[in-house]
Amino acid sequence: MFDRLRQSLALRLAALYSLVFALGAAALFGVLYWSLAKALEARERAALEQRVEEFATALEREGPSGLVAQIKNDSSPEMGALFVRLLAPNGNAVFDKWPDDWIETQIQRLPLGGGLTVTQETQTIRVPQNAAHDYTIASRHLANDWTLHVGRILDSRPVFLAPLRRVFGVVGVGALLLSVAVGTVLGWRATRPLRQLSDTARRIIETGDLAARVPAPAGKDELAVLVRQLNALLDKNAVHVRVLRETLDNLAHDLRTPLTRLRGTAELALQDGGDPAEAHGALADCVNESDRVLHLLEALLDISAAEAGALKLNRTRMDLRSLVERAADLYREVAEEKHITVTVDQPVAVDVVVDAVRMGQAINNLLDNALKYTPAGGRVTIAARTDPEATVLTVSDNGPGVAPEEREAVFRRLYRSDTSRSQRGLGLGLSLVKAIVEAHAGRVGIEDESGGGARFVVRLPRR
Asked: What is the pTM of this model?
């Protein structure tokens, strides 16, 4: 428990906040205290200079005896706190007047005999403690070589500044404790999204619950944005995991059938006393099924390499019409068997810089997909054109089309919609098309064809 509190970010933030607050308050008080002490000292210094000016005027007007008489006759508290010394031109002290609280009077009783005593008063000058530090003297040299010194103890520190220090100490300690408490509460509230994030991550690790999400806080601060982005990342990862599971399920299903056939035909070929012609046909079927499995694995490897950016492309400048016409010739017999008309709409040359083999694969797969889902007597059109930014290749048909909610899914690996289960295939053709097009920095999508059907659109950047 202690280690957890010691490692708590909220407590560390509160401690840092309190330290900054304490240093700032101490610096502010220091500047205020120094400024106030200097202001009080300047004020008392100015009052002392004014008193020196008054004594100097009296000395010049009435002479030393008049000044001494004026000082002795002044019984005000202010005069009682002053030190006054008058020096003659030869440097001897003519008159000294000490502050009243510096003078200690001691009474002694001296016996004379016969029961008589004499009382004697003795005065001692005792400088108060720290008076030298808090003492200031103003001097004036007069025209007739007389010198006047007037001084007093600065009473600002004991009277005003010392209580100010005590008040600041008490208030400062209380404010520091309050800042620690407030900082802890604010730090605990501010770091709550981080604790929720940690708890959610721990729950996912311990239970494998991919549906766990961090409670989204209100507001638009950095932590709120972080939580929302993390939840979006978890959603995306959940989709990837779901797609991966579906892909593995579909892959297992698609591999099970050819491998089962392969095993069955191999067992048939190994039967003793069998017809050599049947054994030869069984081995031929084994080769065909093996080719189908290899084709499936090669397509998966090509898609993975393209998505990882590792698909090697041998780009050359060429006319896209050659790839389109080659694909149309390759599937001409298939189209004739289904009585489907394949039209190439490319009246002018369309220059592209592509890998001829890979782009030919993509066009072949698009045409093969269109022929699969176009009914007998239908039509398929392959068109190519250029615009200022891209080369556009379209493959259109008048088949059943693709539902809007499936237009992203059909490009996933091994995805087979309900309407396509009746068609023979691996579910990798469109995935390979998307991987090849994106490897050429292009993109592929599906649009509705006017009059029904689907239009697959490939856009390749011209630069």
From this structure: 0.48
